[in-house]
Records
---
Amino acid sequence: MTHAHFLARRKRLLKAIGNGVAVIPTAPEVVRNRDAHYPYRFDSYFWYLTGFPEPEAVVVLVGAQPGKKAKSILFCRDKHAEREIWDGYRYGPKAAKTAFGFDAAYSIEAFDKILPELLVDRDSLWHSIGHDAGWDARISQALNAVRAQTRAGKRAPRAIHDLRAELDAMRLIKDGAELDLMQQAADIASAGHARAMRACRPGMAEYELEAELTYAFRKRGADAHAYTPIVAGGANACVLHYVENDKLLNDHSLVLIDAGCEVRGYAADITRTFPVNGRFTPAQKDVYEIVLAAQDAAFAATAPGQHFMAGHDAAVRVLTQGLIDLKLLSGNLDNLIEKSDFRRFYMHRTGHWLGLDVHDAGEYKTGDAWAVLQPGMTLTVEPGLYIRPGADIPPELAGIGIRIEDDVRVTASGCDVYTSAPKTVAEIEEVMRHD
Ligand code: GLY
Ligand code: MN
Ligand code: MN
């Protein structure tokens, strides 16, 4: 991704805000304990518009008005000889302006003084209202600083808009450079899942498989896990957000891994479920084939012009029929779907937008109408079945939890599944054969 991409996005947003002013800060550094910080992760909106990696930075977009061209202005940390010895290189405003193609750049120290000047006689101010109380207060302060000059004939913006509505709509459709990065993340994540399958042996701990994924991600240059990985042996897979990853993996049970990496901000999100010893039992295979068929049905329903829930509805139909075949549900297929009886075994949706955030920005529904798929949208397709042990559950099915998750982009004619970890029963058993 080049600076031209970020520039083009700023230009588009500048068009949308008229003569208004948009303020987009990056994320703060976060303390983990005492003086140790969590690894730094920039704000996704800020990154989308700038590609600037440092904390303590804000981009301000000032819309065009008669006689004045639109401007993008960066506020960032100053150069600091001593801090750079301890913490590393800082661009400083001067170098950042050139390197990232801003019209102007200033010290972050000057932000509270300069923002009111930029707001004078502008119609609107755009920011993420309510996202951060500190920022809401800072912006109110800047507005009040302009209002204090009313008698000098200066006018403060009358309208405050939530910037996210504009940005979310832009982020929903990925450009070619974004799709390339998402493909890179997907390739690395797919290789990580294959590596975990090859390494898996009965008696290992879940965290040992987590270590295989982390190794594969970092070895191939991914920046980090895109979210906390789930490595869930046996019935732990029925706990949807299981992240302890500290139990032993038993022979004859399955393990579910939901893990993906991040490459230059873009996430992959993959789930695979496979037998700890490399061979599916007949019951495990029966459930697995149902989930796999549900995913295929969802892929077929993921195409331009279809609505967001079409994939989910298709998956639910196959899963519910599967639950009837397994004798876990009985009755008429349409009635069972209508009454949502499948929800005991399938309680989440079949996908979500994917991008800079693993659950990416973008609306799903406007009023009663689901979003309509368009080329360039990226989403996950992740059906599952979770059979928690219970008095009415046959022992061979009790504790089986299976999810299969891949990432797709909507194309002109359908969808392209661009994650590639081993998936069919035959592929998994082949990659796990240790001879
Ligand atoms: N890994 C988060 C999800 O699948 O939605
Ligand atoms: Mn997902
Ligand atoms: Mn996932």
---
Amino acid sequence: MTSEEKTIFKKIIDGEIPANVVFQDDLCLAFHDAFPQAPVHVLLIPKQEIENVDSLDDQHRDLAGHLLLTVPKVARLLGIEDSGYRVVANCGKDGGQSVDHLHLHILAGRPLTWPPG
Ligand code: DGP
């Protein structure tokens, strides 16, 4: 894959563009969103290239579980475990997905309204 074909998140994984990293391990990376929609807005992504939630299948069982289990670890690092937070995965056009690399938004720091727009 050429650099031009890489998603912005793959470039962050590969260290080609900087990110404010909160947490990482062998499988995933969490970093602050460049366009925060709440006082705390962190993205958690797998290092493996997966387009979105709809691309997940049985081969991703362990990774998907690991990603979800990493959310509370990141929440504790951010100090939002008591106040609460929202986890969002936008998927596809109507879901509002703009980067074609699976990511979980972790949003916190103010009461979040429901339903989303
Ligand atoms: P989504 O719309 O669900 O695909 O979310 C993509 C998010 O990625 C959006 O909240 C803005 C964020 N984003 C886009 N480009 C960059 C970047 O270069 N760095 C960081 N940290 N976040 C980015």
---
Amino acid sequence: MSKEKCNPYENMLTMLDKAAEKLGLEYDDYVGLRYPERELTVSVPVEMDNGKKVIFQGYRIHHSSTRGPCKGGVRYHPSVDLEEVKALAAWMTWKCAVVNIPYGGAKGGVKCEPEKMSENELRKLTRRYTAMILPIIGPEKDIPAPDVNTNEQVMAWMMDTFSMLKGYAVPGVVTGKPVDIGGSLGRAEATGRGVMITVLNVIDKLKLDKNMSIAVQGFGNVGGVAAMLLSEQGFKIVGISDASCALYKKEGIDIKSALEYAKNNNRMLKGYEEEGIAEITNNELLCLDVDILIPAALENQITKKNASDIRAKIIVEAANGPTTNEADEILEKRNVIMVPDILANAGGVVVSYFEWVQNEQYFMWDEDYINSKLKGVMDKAFEEVWKIHQENNVSLRMAAYMVALGRVAKAKKIRGIFP
Ligand code: GLU
């Protein structure tokens, strides 16, 4: 058996080429999108608490600025490398295009083990990383945001570092910052809320009701919020997991109490108990007999190894790139409905866009307005993708890529090549 290709950038290119073919694009019409516009690698020195110096590898990649400033998160994780950040940057281009917000795509990351670092070390790392990527970020160039293992506090340090070096406050340089310094109401829950809206949209199209069971992989800012909002909607969340453990309860888990437990337990589910709950493995969670599976952790979780064992009828990708291309093909053949990441998890960047607009206008919107605008954008994108899916008899992933690539390639054509 051939070894499965798990290079996320190559997987992205395969999808891109296929979508271009479906759209009838010539190679020349989109070849520029096969390459990131700009790649910056930085070596970030940090004096650790023990007095020793450690050099961390960091990246900031601009995949495309064709439709507007580059946009995308920053992740802190041991698996961060150039290929991963390149893929994540490209996915941001497609994500922003599929929901039709005026941004290109970017991503950043630092290879590190944040859970082993003190707050002091994380602050120093963040400030120095920000200073080193400073030439290529800014509200009109590239706007970082939270991603895996980064949060409001990290964004606050980035905003402060950028502002200090400029000499004046620049709130619009990052999104996902605390509300007190120009963050947006609703931003923290936005990705999870977008996932919930997407689940409602897909079951509506399939004429199903909410009497369904769901398993969620990942219990952080995305998975935890999605699980909470979906349980409030009346779905039964039977499986949850995080990096520490996976849990199953046939009758449905009390998500509110699990969230409360994780909050007080270093953001870990390990040790959470309620009557009838059992610990399972991460792979067992993915293969639970549920109606809907929501991978909300890292990429390459559903591979050709476990794709045939997945029993969910619908998968809603809350993480970026959780399914490999080969697994995707297996699931498509098995008629599993797959709502792709670039559509399903776009809620975060949509409210990031609202945050940036508020910053640029020095104006603040209220939360109900933000949530209803988010729903409007998510619903419209879902409709557009669904229509292409039906008209062309292609998967939802292919349809989402066709919508996104169609928009970016058109913008590229109109702009032309400089000089
Ligand atoms: N990191 C999030 C994502 O992957 C949010 C990006 C943003 O808000 O810019 O979509």
---
Amino acid sequence: MKYKMVSFISVLMSFALFAQQVAAQPAIIPEPVSMTQKDGSYQFRNKIIISSENTTVAVKKIGELLIDKLSATDLPASFNVGMQQQSDIKFVINKLINNSIGKEGYQLSVTEKEGVVISANEPAGLFYGVQTLLQLLPPEIESKSVAKNIEWKLPLVDITDYPRFGWRGLMFDVSRHFFTKDQVKDYIDQMVKYKYNLLHLTLANDEGWRIEIKALPKLTTVGAWNVKKVGTFGDFSAPGPDEPRDYGGFYSQDDMKELIQYAKDRFVNILPEIDVPGHSLAAIASYPELSCTPGADKYKVRSGEKIMEWPANGHFYALVDNTICPANEKAYAFLDKVFTEVAQLFPFEYIHVGGDECAKNFWEKNPQILALMKQENLKTLDEVQSYFEKRVEKIVESKGKKVIGWDEILEGGLAPNAAVMSWRGMKGGIEAAKLGHDVVMSPTTFAYLDYMQGDIMLEPPVYSTLRLSKAYEFEPVPEGVDAKYIKGGQANLWTEQVYNMRHAEYMTWPRGFAIAEAVWSPKNKKNWEGFVKKTEQHFARFDFAQKKYAPSMYDPYFKFSKNDKNEITVEMKTEIKDLNIHYTFDNSFPDNFYPAYSTPVMVPKDASTMKVITYRGNKVMGRLITFPIAEMKKRAGVK
Ligand code: ACM
């Protein structure tokens, strides 16, 4: 008995030792190209010393940023540049034998003897190595304040990593709702953790002009402001003449310079979008002479009231003419001024000129447009837009920049050098690549972050849904297309329905994790189940960082059908494995003691609600969803 007791204790002790030595399974998002792990760990003990032989400004900045993150530990951290010394973390530049990692790749090793060594050809690679290093540390590293009593351990790993694409973008629409300079910085801080390198800012749309153009002051004295409305965007009441137009804002050129530098320090380019000729109400409200439609001088910056009709046949039309007029020479003089300043301000090689959803119903009978068509021998209104795009391309190129636009710019003939951002599925991108143009894939089908992430009974309502598992299927290079034309991919966060930063975070993450794997990780490394496990670990990191994310992957899908007696059946399934769905029709709150769904369920004749929630074992995972009977009948097609 005594012997048994001793051996039991020694088993317990060795288990404790083992648990102490093995740091958690790494959960790196995006998945690295290759990673091997050995038993054991490296622990930062009394202090953390970082050293780098390289003394460039960019490397020093990376060191500063790392020190800043390490302030969440209770260990003093220091960064020694130009010194070779005993250190916990070493930065090495330009010493690589393996050159296949390119400009943004890195190698990271953690050994018991040497601690952490991050090597890269360029500072960008070092920066991405640091992001991986942070993800190897316990999640408390994301804490807002000092996290006490944590063992700051790293697993022993050997990682070689580099991106699949050079264009790894997130689009943040700061026009529909304005987000401050600090909020944009915060967005950049989050995106770089997942190795995104491009921030596309929508700076001009119907709801606001957001960038100071010194030669055109009304763009920001008038165009940046509308009436604050709260509720369901698109259905707002038309603003009255007395309602104050004090909602919105803009970035001064100095603000934007600060943002560009902030992004650059984190290896992010900012792509400015000036959306023309459609979606231009903010510009027209500021300078009505840009329109060819009589009465445009009464137009106001949109405050979320209805200005377009979207019939199911896809032939949308505008209720007010929100287009800049292609037949108006003043439009080109205006754009010349805009692009002169935009080109001077933004160092990135591209300017995005929009081109999407340009309603042409006001053009049909407009005498100036008809005269232009005659003069230029343009047969269709798409050719009128194409004429406009080609002139815009010339203006942008005259400022030393390249043009990128939404895939509508293909219609009526693509401008000679324009790159295409494919959003209406992959079709436009395929067509452009086949014509030999560069393409960025950002299809609604996989990459629209403004879409709902689960059932509309729970999610803030939007007209379409994109679940996490679908986003994870995103593959930027379609079959039959020469991959050399696909510059990369991008996820887009339009903000008509996004009023604040917490909701912007909710909409971006975790789908932003999924798109990050599509644009960084090798295709053959993708694995949905592994990704879900990592996502859950990153949720813990977000909790420490006090950032919001959508837990929608824990909520079920529903399918309602009826039989010939009008009885309703509901089928339910979950997006991820190992969840149980518990439900009730008796109006009470289901928990894990309620029936667990296994096969399709008949809705009882007299039920007035169905309530559903998911559990993992005895832990609640999903959110309570309540279906009123009217909704179930509607979905099943019961009259
Ligand atoms: C778009 O979503 N209208 C490009």
